[in-house]
Amino acid sequence: MKVIVVVGAGKIGGAIALMLADTGSYRVVVADRDGQQLAKIDRHPAISVTAVDIADHAALVGVLKGKFAVLSAAPFHLTGKVAQAALDAGVHYLDLTEDVATTRMVKTLADGADTAFIPQCGLAPGFISIVANDLAKRFDSLDSVRMRVGALPQYPSNALNYNLTWSTDGLINEYIEQCEAIVEGKLINVPAMEEREEFSLDGVTYEAFNTSGGLGTLAETLQGRVRTMNYRTIRYPGHQAIIKALLHDLNLKNRRDVLKDLFENALPATMQDVVVVFVTVCGWKDGRYLQETYANKVYAGMVADKRMSAIQITTAAGITAVLDLLADGKLPQKGFVRQEEISLDDFLANRFGRAYGVEPAKRRETA
Fold first, then answer.
1. Mean of the pLDDT values across residues 137-148?
2. Spatial CA neighbour of 344 closest among 170, 181, 218
3. How far apart are CA 25 and CA 33, in angstroms?
4. CA distance linking residue 200 with residue 44, whole number of Å
5. How many CB atoms lie within 10 A of CB 349?
6. What are the Cα distances from residue 330, in Å, to 47, 113, 129, 167?
7. High-pLDDT (> 90) share of the chain, %
8. Which residues, in sequence order, are CB contacts of 255 under 8 Å at separation 6+?
9. How far is CA 109 from the centre of its chain?
10. The pLDDT of residue 123
């Protein structure tokens, strides 16, 4: 039985720990400096907790030594410290970060490492990169890759048409930082919250706009092979205009602490959410210009005998499936591993990856 350390005792970290422990294949140590958060972790014979400050490098290395892997569910600005500790402890490293700078740091640390470093193992970046690359491989040559993802309330009831479903720090980071995109064959940065579009899926109208980090490393992988490539976050119509007013007209982009306080005290969290994944790839095959599309919705439901939100399920399933594939020897065992190196078929066949399958996607209100 492999021992895994999960750093971060929030909702996602707790979901990861429970999903891993429930299989009987892993023992899990959840690490966090906040004793109150650790007290909320589900009790399970295969789960233990330990209080450790990520900033205390020596203490964190001590927790990691001798373990199989560490999975970081910590805030994006602390993830780099976990990666450095993983290198020094000699354990495999996986994370959920969408932060571009952190991923570049992880890539540098992985150079010459004897263990695997696999960042961006969540939903977006993560699963969406695996899907997009799988679609892209079906073409002789590519024209465009468009990746869209949103974690949305099933029952929006405020002007933003939104409820908090995951990390507030991560959400704000995506709304503010520059976004990578390929435009006319060149990899460039474009501003967040711009290039709004509308589309419909299953009779529901959505808007989508640029946010940071969703492309992951796929932009580098496909650079020079595709004319247009971008990632946009999905929301219900009206959300973008209000957020832009907060960020720019009220200058809250430079007062993240105020924006975070507003979000967390004015927007209720919800467990009744839906994750929308929509990927479209256009290109040429056998001389014809064709389009391939992946569209899916994953709803909240029961996992490991516990009700989880859709964002918990999809994010935790992403990183646990990658861990399983690593443990089974289906991924490189050392160095930097990109999400697009993961086979979509292997991912969906995995016991965790099956959460993204067609039948689990129909789990709405089954609890």
1. 97
2. 218
3. 26
4. 42
5. 13
6. 26, 18, 18, 30
7. 90
8. none
9. 21
10. 94
Is the pLDDT at 366 greater than 50, yes or no?
A: no
Other C-beta atoms closer than 10 Å to the C-beta of 264 total: 12
Residue 245 pLDDT class (50, 70, 90 cuts) = very high
pLDDT at 365: 40
Are the C-beta atoms of 177 and 212 separated by less than 8 Å? yes
Best CA proximity match to 130, nearest among 354, 293, 365, 348 = 348
Measured CA to CA, the distance from residue 213 to residue 207 in angstroms comes to: 18
DSSP 351: T
Confidence of residue 40 (pLDDT cuts 50, 70, 90): very high
Whole-number Å distance between alpha carbons of 347 and 278 = 17
Tokens of 83: 């990666």
Here the tokens at position 120 are 């961006």
Query: In angstroms, rounded to a whole number, what is the distance separating the alpha carbons of residues 274 and 251?
Result: 30
Rounded to whole angstroms, the Cα distance separating 96 from 228 reads 25
Q: What percentage of the chain has pLDDT greater than the value 70? A: 97
pTM of the entire predicted model = 0.92
3-class secondary-structure state, position 346: helix
Burial of 273 (0-12, 13-18, 19+ CB in 10 A): buried
Q: Given this model, what pLDDT does residue 358 score?
A: 55
